[in-house]
Specification:
Layout lengths: L2 E6 L5 H13 L3 E6 L5 E3 L5 E3 L2 E2 L10 E4 L5 H7 L1 H12 L3 E5 L3 H6 L7 E2 L13 E2 L4 E4 L2 E4 L5 H13 L1 H10 L6
Parallel strand pairs: 1-2, 1-6, 2-5, 6-7, 7-11, 8-9
Antiparallel strand pairs: 3-4, 10-11
């Protein structure tokens, strides 16, 4: 199954973004990191610089099956302020296409009303932004086409949920064993 795009803005939480990249690529899922800054170099919230695979303008969204929004500050605010990305997020939701967000980024879905009646989770100080959701303290929530997670400490489980969605639970379980990640 399809292609995943992880969207990056300056101020992104690097572990939340790159854990998804690592595990999806180990799971042989086509994945691109996409900068919304107009430059491929992105600087994280902890001043780690790295290069994205592509610029937003280069993405054909008809070929994308899942949008992933990592958290971090001010990364989450920068993602939400980038209207072309938000237009795609809205379109994906309307079409029931896959959306995933971790840490502060699930607030973006809450602000748009996507979480109404769904189980969802986020970084604790952003729970009030999960408008209409049944807020849980689970590490990851999968509700139809939306995956949410709580933060850096849940990044592996978040990435494995994405792998399970894209390639099946068996692939996610194999990766869990390969990286010696034991569930609590």
């Amino acid at each position: 199954m399809g292609k995943v795009c992880v969207f990056l803005a300056d101020g992104v939480e690097e572990i939340e973004a790159l854990t998804v990249v690592d595990l999806c690529r180990r799971g042989e899922i086509e994945l691109e990191t996409v900068s919304i800054t107009g430059e491929k170099q992105v600087t994280s919230s902890h001043q780690v610089s790295f290069l994205a695979d592509a610029l937003f303008e280069e993405i054909d969204f008809d070929e994308v099956d899942m949008i992933v929004l990592p958290g971090g500050m001010p990364g989450t605010k920068n993602l939400e302020a980038f209207e072309p990305l938000m237009e795609q997020v809205e379109k994906f939701h309307a079409q029931g296409r896959y959306l995933s967000a971790i840490c502060a980024a699930p607030s973006i879905f809450g602000h748009r009303g996507f979480l109404e009646g769904r189980n969802a989770c986020s970084f604790p100080s952003f729970e009030e932004h999960l408008e209409g959701a049944h807020v849980t303290h689970n590490r990851v929530e999968v509700s139809d086409h939306i995956i949410t997670s709580r933060g850096m400490g849940t990044a592996i489980e978040f990435a494995l949920a994405i792998v399970a969605r894209m390639k099946g639970q068996q692939t996610a379980d194999r990766l869990r064993q390969t990286i010696v990640y034991e569930q609590e």
